[in-house]
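Researcher: Structure for this, please.
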Amino acid sequence: MRALVVEDEASLRESLQARLGQAGFTVDVARDGDEGLFAGREYPLDVAVIDLGLPGLSGLELIRRLRAEGKTYPILILTARDNWQDKVEGLQAGADDYVVKPFHFEEVLARLQALLRRAGGWASPQLKCGPIVLDTRAQHLLKALVERYIRDGEPVGSRTLSKDSGLDLSPASIRNIMADLEEMGFVAAPHTSAGRVPTVKGYRLFVDTMLKVKPLDEQELRLMRTHLDPSETNPQALLVSASNMLQAITHMTGVVTLPRREHLSWRHIEFLPLSENRVLVILVLNDGEVQNRVLHLERGYDASGLQQISNYLNSHFAGRDIHELRRGLLNELNRTRESMNDLMRAAITMAEKVFQARSGEATYMMAGETNLMEFAELSDVEKLRRLFEAFNHKRDILHLLDKCIAAEGVQIFIGEESGYKVLDECSVVTAPYSVGEDVVGVLGVIGPTRMAYERVIPIVDVTARLLSAALNPRK
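Model: Predicted structure, token format:
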């Protein structure tokens, strides 16, 4: 069972964390309402304990927001005020029960167990994963093994697990539990007598039920805000900053898809002559964006001829949806090829070249690809070659990122979960970003499966929120 404790009093928060941990809970803690909101949104919780008297975002407002976002796990409120009005207000906000301070821990535990029974979630300290059941000892050992392997990148032996887990178990008992975990598919032994490593299945169980995501500290947040400054008016520069920031902070690969605009149309086009059969194209879109590109043509045109081509295209195609425009140009060229004069053919051929150039533009921005060379499990030359080819070809990576646009919050693909063999030894952590009310793109981090998820997840989440805020239109 995974519980969240949101309490600003450090001694009480730490006491609840320790006692609930002894009772078989995996416990996340938050010091104020803002941290609690992040944890309540992002963690797969079974129950939450929330103090009403929090600094900043109040406990009542925190509960209201969590319920408004569809979070249905039971909530137990803590209150120092023993009057019926506070209790009623808390229950009306969405809480399920309350305890008045000061309290005995046994009462808190009993109320939590009762809430979980009513919610159909409490049976025992055992963790169920489909038909497989892990007891508390197996959970602790698996958690200790994953954390140690993420940190060191080496197979973990029973002696190390005995120290890291804090359990009073003999090396023989630990080996027996490890053998059970291996049989269940959560760990694997890469070499005989060399310790064990987590499998994709083990990582998934760890991320979903055992991981404690740590909110970023204020210094890191200030640094991230300077990289994604809302005063920056160039959207392209913000996307570049986001991908560079992700790779710099995580030391892995940062990726940001370019914004999708569903109703983008061509407002106006102009052609200006340059030297050596080159033409400068100025394309104005309906949202006011101006794009420039240089075309290399088979013949030269003077300013007068280019103006006639601009006039023809603007009169016949202005206002058309840009995603359908290229198909329309081809249809027009095929349908009336015989009756076209030279001007019409030149105009449509030139417009086709504009959209051929546009279709070849980058669909996402990536930074820090070479950071992956620093991880031993990805440093094999052949693995790196295939990975970098996938980055360059873009199709598979883009398909994976496209899956995340319709999803809410942070998405995590571990190893073969991505569906692309080249990423079998990588994890991808993504979050959508938006402009106004519309989700327009996805950003994320690509790294080894043994990435520090508790750190990468909040970095990706906060970056998406900051990029969304920076891209929103200025009032």
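Researcher: Any notable elements?
Model: The longest strand covers residues 438-448. The chain has a mean pLDDT of 82.
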